[in-house]
Amino acid sequence: MSVMLLVMSLWLLLQGCACDPVNLGCMEWDHVGDGACCKACHPGHRLVRKCGPRAIDLCTPCEPGTYASTFSDNQCKWCTQCAGTQVQLEACTPTADTKCGCKKGYTCGNDHCSFCVRTCTKGQEPHDGSCRPCPNGTFNDKIHQKCKPWSTECPKPNQRIAAKGDAFTDIKCVDVSKLNSVVTTPLSVDTSDPKTVTTTETPVSDPKTVVKVEPPGEDIKVFCLCLCPRIQTFLEAQLTSFVVLNR
């Protein structure tokens, strides 16, 4: 009795396999006469021939080093080989291609990471496979992104532009209320001491006075130049001769 049950179980299993050709390659097919024509192979398989007596014989698994990721491929493709500045993240399988990444300091050049480019830092942007500084009037505060134009106005209506942006940051804004909290008075001069200048910055709540004293000037020194005795004697002789000649 047990032998008969085992035989029946094996027979039903074989029937199930024969009725489910998805696991054997062909995923969709049309009945044509006494045979079948395959419309799409199961992922990881390629088409052997379009039509035949049995649908399960129309597709075969991809060979090692090849893959078929979708049922519409019907043919296997060569697995990608990561090279150069690329690194392999995931190995190729019969249903998926190799997944490549980039070495440190490099970034994928496209969505499929088929090549790598040098990673651009903040203040730069990708350009023709390399990096260039953000043009004047633009900034970039992220890694390997396009530079963006500076804002032309502050995000809030009660703010004013306090400083323009640079290659790394956008414009800087400040609340108008903070600008009005400091009152600056003109320079005042202490006439009693011309070397002392007083400037006053007067916040509304806490006046402070800053005094700047210039250092006094240095005394003027007078140097006397004395003639040596020989030169003095020569001049006296010349003067005596002049007096004698003019008598």
Provide an overview of this structure.
There is one protein chain. The relative contact order is 0.05. The strands form nine sheets. Strands 18, 19, 20 and 21 form a four-stranded antiparallel sheet that branches. A three-stranded antiparallel sheet has the order 1-2-4, with no helix packed on it. The chain has a two-stranded antiparallel ribbon with strand order 3-5. Among the domains are: 21-78, Tumor Necrosis Factor Receptor, subunit A, domain 2; 86-148, Tumor Necrosis Factor Receptor, subunit A, domain 2, CATH 2.10.50; 183-210, no CATH class. It has three helices and 21 strands. It is of the alpha+beta class and 247 residues long. The radius of gyration is 47 Å and the shape is elongated. It is 16% helix and 33% strand. The longest helix is centred in the first third of the chain and has 18 residues, at 2-19. Residues 1-19 form the signal peptide. InterPro entries: TNFR/NGFR_Cys_rich_reg.
